Amino acid sequence: MNTQGRPPQTPLEALRQRRFLYTRWPWRSLASAGAALVVGGVAVSVVGLMLVPLIILGEIVIEARQGIVEIELWLVIVLPLLSLGLLLALGPLLALPVAVVERWRLRLVHPPIRPGHRAPRPGLWSGLRTRYTDPTTWREFAYLLLLCFVIAPLSYLVLFALVVYGAVLLGAPILVAVGEPLALNQRQVTDVPTALLLVPVGAVLLLASPYAAAVGAHVNAVLGRNLLGGEPAETLRAELVEVTRSRARLVDAFEAERRRIERDLHDGAQQRLVALVIQLGLARMDAPAGSRVEETLASAHEQTKELISAMQEIIHGIHPQLLADQGLAAALPELVERSAIPVALSVDLVERPPSHVESTVYFAAAEALANVAKHTQARRIAVAVHREGETLVLEVTDDGPGGADPGQGTGLTGLADRITVIGGRMLLSSPAGGPTRIRVETPCNHTLPSELF
């Protein structure tokens, strides 16, 4: 619908305007019908070759009814199946270029239609398999059949029954006056007075042709949009994949930035604070014992050491150096030692997982332990890490009362999102009365999150 002065985008919107005949839409609709007739004629000629066996069968049936030949049963079965096989085997291949031309043609009467094909795999057979298993290819094939047997005939009807025939009737008096008799329904019009009676009929046909062409173009555009464009679900799926890739790229960038911050703090600020502690210690030794200067230096010395400890905690929370240097098997024991609740740890890893998997599993364990300490009354926790084929599994079980709900702000939702980004999943079992078990499964490969989708 044309709203707020926006120009019409389709023939249907243009038809709602009072000055429709004075716009460009009648000409665009008629041009679209003419182009459809040309494209449909070429497509019909090619599809007709695929239907030659069926045409031969039709001729045999006619001759059989006339008693000229006897029809064989195997012909009735084989020839239709042969035509059907040719149509199903070659029709989709013909539909691909026809769909490209039709998307271009429909731009006359419709905003651009985006194709919804999946990207073909490399190689001839792989590419053909992709094409023949792609739903978009078969929707284009359905459109090809509609173009051949519905759209092209209707376009012919509009152009010749309305435009050409109307023009002939409108010019009937001139044709008769120059000695050209007009054949009309097996009757000939040879006098001018009779020919003048046909002029209003021709005018009505010509006047109706733009409206008929616009309606036909709109129906054609709707069919093209639904059969030649990507499915809404496929479009949505592509958008979701792009969103997931974007989120994965952000995770990769965040992980790299976190490592940079940890390295800068460890190698920069922390080293300077250590040097400051040493200098304060030396100054404290040089100061007179019991003096106010010595007390001030002692206080500054202790506060700086506390600051170093706090910074070490921050660095550990950003990315533990032990995790980066020695891996998950060495970092997890240190993590569970910091827990306020006793933890039984089991780590069964033959080889070190990729760094992004280690980081995700480590912080998943840290978040799970923090949730248990904050939201439950558990007295004991069990943490197990092991490989199951190409999957790294983390299980955290506590003996709390259960009833954990990810929607109640327990941090489980964020934990699940972080795991999903690297292609993993989180499973939660927390019946009333306990125990609560969190199982994290992550693909143990060297593919970065942004390369998974």
From TrEMBL:
Output the superkingdom of the source species: Bacteria
Q: Which CDD domains match?
A: HATPase_UhpB-NarQ-NarX-like
Bilayer-spanning residue ranges: 29-62, 74-101, 141-174, 194-217
Top-level EC class as recorded in UniProt: transferase
Domain named Histidine kinase/HSP90-like ATPase: which ranges?
356-446
What cellular component terms from Gene Ontology apply here?
A: membrane
Q: What GO molecular function terms would the record report? A: ATP binding; phosphorelay sensor kinase activity; protein dimerization activity
Under Pfam families, the record lists:
HATPase_c (PF02518), HisKA_3 (PF07730), Sensor (PF13796)
Protein keywords: ATP-binding, Kinase, Membrane, Nucleotide-binding, Phosphoprotein, Transferase, Transmembrane, Transmembrane helix, Two-component regulatory system
Catalytic reaction annotation: ATP + protein L-histidine = ADP + protein N-phospho-L-histidine
Enzyme Commission number(s) of this protein? 2.7.13.3
What the entry lists under InterPro entries is as follows:
HATPase_C_sf, HATPase_dom, Put_sensor_dom, Sensor_HK_TwoCompSys, Sig_transdc_His_kin_sub3_dim/P
Protein name from the UniProt record? histidine kinase
Q: Please tell me the species this chain comes from.
A: Lipingzhangella halophila
Read off the lineage from the record.
Bacteria, Bacillati, Actinomycetota, Actinomycetes, Streptosporangiales
